[in-house]
C-alpha cells in the first residue's frame, strides 16, 4: 500500500493538529481509524471472494478432468466387455453349430433336467429311533386338544 515512515506520520499529525484543532482531532482520528478499518475489511473481503472464485474455477477444472477420466475408463471397460462377449458368443456358436457335428467332434450331451426327489417325510420320521425322538422332544403320539390341556394343567386346578 502506501509506505509511511514515522517521520511522515508525525508530519501529517502536526499538520492535522494545526488545521483541525485540538478539540476535534480525537473525533476525526477515531473516524479516520474506523474508515480505515472498514476499508481494510472490504479489501480483505474482495481478496477472499477472488480467492474463492479462483478455487471454484480450479475445482470445476478438476471435476471436468475427473469426469472425462471416468468416461474414458467406462468406455474402455465397456469395449473390453463387448469384445469378451463377442468372443464368447463366437465360441458358443462354433461349439453348437452343425458343422461341429459334421466335422466328427464329440460334444457332451446336456445335463439331465432337475427332478425333485419326492421323499416321503412320514417314512423318514418313522425311521428315527424312539430314544432320539424322546431326547429331541418330538411328539411320538397324537393327542387331542383336551388331552393336551389335561396333561399340561398345573396341579391343584381342576
From TrEMBL:
Entry keyword set: Cell inner membrane, Cell membrane, Membrane, Protein transport, Translocation, Transmembrane, Transmembrane helix, Transport
Mode of membrane association: Single-pass membrane protein
Pfam assignment, any one: TatA_B_E
Transmembrane segments: none
Subcellular location: Cell membrane; Membrane
Chain residue ranges for the region called Disordered: 135-158
Keyword Transmembrane helix attributed: yes
Xref: PANTHER family: SEC-INDEPENDENT PROTEIN TRANSLOCASE PROTEIN TATA, CHLOROPLASTIC
Family to which the UniProt record says this protein belongs: Belongs to the TatB family.
Job of this protein: Part of the twin-arginine translocation (Tat) system that transports large folded proteins containing a characteristic twin-arginine motif in their signal peptide across membranes. Together with TatC, TatB is part of a receptor directly interacting with Tat signal peptides. TatB may form an oligomeric binding site that transiently accommodates folded Tat precursor proteins before their translocation.
Record note on quaternary structure: The Tat system comprises two distinct complexes: a TatABC complex, containing multiple copies of TatA, TatB and TatC subunits, and a separate TatA complex, containing only TatA subunits. Substrates initially bind to the TatABC complex, which probably triggers association of the separate TatA complex to form the active translocon.
Record's protein name: Sec-independent protein translocase protein TatB
Amino acid at each position: 500500500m502506501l509506505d509511511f515512515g514515522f517521520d511522515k506520520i508525525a508530519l501529517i499529525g502536526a499538520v492535522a493538529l494545526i488545521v483541525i484543532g485540538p478539540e476535534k482531532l480525537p473525533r476525526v482520528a477515531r473516524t479516520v481509524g474506523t474508515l480505515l478499518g472498514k476499508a481494510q475489511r472490504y479489501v480483505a473481503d474482495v481478496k477472499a471472494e477472488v480467492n474463492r472464485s479462483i478455487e471454484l474455477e480450479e475445482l470445476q477444472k478438476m471435476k471436468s478432468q475427473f469426469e472425462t477420466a471416468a468416461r474414458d475408463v467406462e468406455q474402455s471397460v465397456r469395449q473390453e466387455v463387448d469384445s469378451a462377449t463377442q468372443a464368447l458368443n463366437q465360441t458358443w456358436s462354433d461349439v453348437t453349430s452343425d458343422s461341429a457335428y459334421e466335422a466328427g467332434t464329440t460334444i457332451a450331451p446336456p445335463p439331465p433336467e432337475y427332478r425333485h426327489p419326492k421323499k416321503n417325510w412320514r417314512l423318514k420320521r418313522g425311521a428315527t429311533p424312539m430314544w432320539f425322538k424322546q431326547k429331541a422332544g418330538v411328539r411320538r403320539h397324537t393327542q387331542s386338544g383336551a388331552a393336551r390341556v389335561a396333561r399340561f394343567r398345573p396341579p391343584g386346578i381342576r
